[in-house]
Design goal:
homodimer; 180 residues; alpha+beta; four-stranded mixed beta sheet; three-stranded antiparallel beta sheet; 3 helices; 43% strand
Chain lengths: 180, 180
């Protein structure tokens, strides 16, 4: 069911992505235009304390122009390993650090429109080691949330970022398969 | 922590979205550029048969240029109610119909970069009522998957679309709160 790309053009570029327009042909000979956001891979990291709290961040999100409650997340830098990016984003966004990072898998944020993947980690036994190190466009509230209260926050819509939900789903499935 | 938009410009338009560039100012006086994809709302619908299978679709996704296994999904049309869109997409993509649609909540696919939300439904007691009605850019394999086997498919990465994972997470939490 693959389509072949007949022609491709970058129609817009900015610092964090390029927008590409493809002209593609299906195996039945149909041709259509598809747009793809070329963007770097992401990490999402679920920071867990020894007393079973998740260190979450509340921040203003410019897409929906509202505050969201999410797990720490960010771009994997050029040449950086995903686990290094996860520990870096954890430290920068929250001021917490972990000595035991576990990979939970990878998901595609939007396989129809975007070409990137998001690597998901759980950071065990996190502890505060300093102040957050935000860049000039970042400002967050650090909110430790009891892990046992997460399902109710998802059901109520208080946690509503699909990538945070996917990460929590992976953690939940891992924990049910291998109880701590 | 809200930012004020100082200036806004549409830098690219196509059939399914517009790309907007905002110049915004934080409450501390920082100014930055942010890009937002203005795009319509989506629905994701989990079709459940009476014998506990999920009717999933496998299709070529142009963002990652690979096949994915997902629940039926699509745009809410202009003026259409989300539950109508869910039943329509279910019928068009799979040929199945349901007489009992239940809303599970809404998630934000990407609150940083996109302005839309995705309404999530479960369609109970679905049954095949005809052939799928794909548009010319659609072609799918219809794959009934035992609900009990979903966790292993998520853990193995065989199901990897973050929106499908978020939908399955909502279904799982609803079912654990209100066992059938």
């Amino acid at each position: 069911m693959r389509w072949d790309v007949l022609a491709s053009e970058i129609v817009y570029r900015c610092r964090i992505f390029s927008l590409r327009r493809d002209r593609s042909r299906s195996r039945t000979g149909q041709t259509h235009e598809f747009h793809v956001l070329e963007i770097g891979d992401w990490v999402n990291v679920i920071p867990l304390t020894t007393d079973h709290r998740v260190i979450m961040v509340r921040q203003f999100r410019h897409g929906i122009r509202a505050l969201t409650l999410e797990v720490p997340a960010g771009f994997v830098d050029e040449g950086e390993a995903p686990h290094t990016a996860a520990l870096r984003e954890l430290r920068e966004e929250t001021g917490y650090a972990s000595t035991r990072l576990e990979a939970l898998g990878s998901v595609y944020p939007n396989p129809a429109l975007m070409n990137n993947c998001c690597h998901v980690f759980v950071a065990h036994d996190v502890a505060e080691v300093g102040a957050p190190q935000w860049d000039s466009a970042e400002e967050m509230l650090i909110e430790p949330i009891p892990l046992a209260g997460i399902p109710e926050l998802v059901l109520s819509g208080a946690i509503s970022n699909a990538l945070t939900l996917a990460a929590l789903q992976l953690l939940d499935l891992h924990r049910r398969r291998t109880p701590a």
